[in-house]
Amino acid sequence: MKKTVVIIVISVVLTVLLALACIIANAISGNPISRLVSKEVAKDYVAENYPAKGYEVEDVSYSFKDSCYHAYVSSEQYIDGDFTVYLNAFGKIQRDDYEYRVNEHGNVSNRLFSEYKAKADTVLESEDFPYDCHIAYGDLDFDGEVGEEFPENAIRRDELVNGAEYDIDELGRRNGRIVLYINTDKADIENASEIMLDVKQRLDTAGVSFYWIDLTLRIHDGDGAAKSELNIRNFKYDDIYEDGLNERVAVAKARTEAYFAEKDAEKATEKPIE
């Protein structure tokens, strides 16, 4: 009798644990049936709303962040035409991002950014790059970046063309941006000048063009927190030359500090969201 009770208890516990595991798995990655349903619904939705593009639903995945199934849509005939359809757990269409990614050229801007970043990475991610970087990447400035004013020479998204080829070197010369956060034991103007001269020479040698550089030098204390920091933003490529460089860097440092002080003051006066 006791043995039977023990077996029943163990069976119940295992069943509960299995059920919990299934619930957790569904919450993280969805379930196969809903994924199949979402794919069929997405196919019908795409065929009805975008019939002339040669689109196919390539794959469906579940995101626990928005509790939606994401149906990925692409077309071999339509470069820069990919987009995503979002469906809830019951296979009901929530929205798609065709407007932003295709009509507003989000795919083109992402493609150009990726190409430029990959080229900059050949230097910034190289084993020969001598700096201890917390962050290092190449970027392109586009108009309409969230929370930012339009940078000088920003690429206008409404002038981009889906499927068009662009000269990445020319885009880099016009509005490429190199962003560096460097851990160092010397966060001063002289070191910033030396680093910018060296980075410019390395990028020039590799054929990586840029218009701006944003440079942050950080000295960390024993616990890893920033003990001292020097920030320079929007320093132009054409201003990186030895004669008078320290003075130009000092001006840029002061301008950057004023910019961040202004942003901090704006945040301090913002009303909290209730």
Average pLDDT, all residues: 86
- Multimerization state: single chain
Instruction: Report the major sheet.
Output: 4 strands, antiparallel
User: Over the alpha carbons, how many angstroms does the gyration radius reach?
Assistant: 26 Å
| Uncertain stretches of 5 or more adjacent residues | 16-30
What is the count of helical runs? 7
Structure explained in plain terms:
With 274 residues, this protein is an alpha+beta fold. The chain contains seven helices and eight strands; from the N terminus they run H-H-E-E-E-E-H-H-E-H-E-H-E-E-H. The chain has helices at residues 2-29, 32-49, 98-103, 106-124, 168-175, 189-206, 245-269; strands at residues 56-63, 68-74, 83-87, 93-96, 132-140, 176-183, 212-220, 226-236. Strand 2 and strand 3 form a beta hairpin. The radius of gyration is 26 Å and the shape is elongated. 22% of the residues are buried.
Describe the structure concisely for a colleague.
With 274 residues, the protein is of the alpha+beta class. The protein is built from 7 helices and 8 strands.
